[in-house]
């Protein structure tokens, strides 16, 4: 159960973060403005937003790949199973940290309400990181020599991890900003990142 839950959570994070861009047009998707000649209309602000999105997606991409691997757990060996999941959870915390750092290092995106959108996304990632850290701490205390207690601890960790899938999509706040949504669709690293997961879109609200 824990392995399935951990993998489901990692997959949810991957899909959420890979949803930076979508090539297909979906209802409500914002289409980047074009000139009459059909070339993208690049204002200074738009160009800066694309550069910002490129930096963020380039920082996120390696972490998406790592999380997509899932935990290495041997159910026939309790100690190995515990060690494998503890290691995976630690790696997940590190990846979430680097994702947060990547967004913060990029600075405020040069669009209206850009910092508000970034704060919302990093806040969701911080919440996820805290939950994973808590699950990891609980699992580290589990006694593999007490089968019943160990199974109960594993089950509890699995339930806690599964709750992470209920968190808001950390990219929703970013893609909900019209200018950032357009930028994510144009940045090359975001287009490549979208190929690793969901291409779903979020209808911008500003």
From TrEMBL:
Region entry Disordered, spans: 22-42
Low complexity compositional bias, start-end: 32-42
Source organism superkingdom: Bacteria
Keyword annotations of the record: Coiled coil, Signal
Positions in coiled-coil regions: 118-145
Leader sequence segment: 1-18
UniProt key word Coiled coil: yes
The name this protein goes by in its record: Small secreted protein
Phylogenetic lineage: Bacteria, Bacillati, Actinomycetota, Actinomycetes, Pseudonocardiales
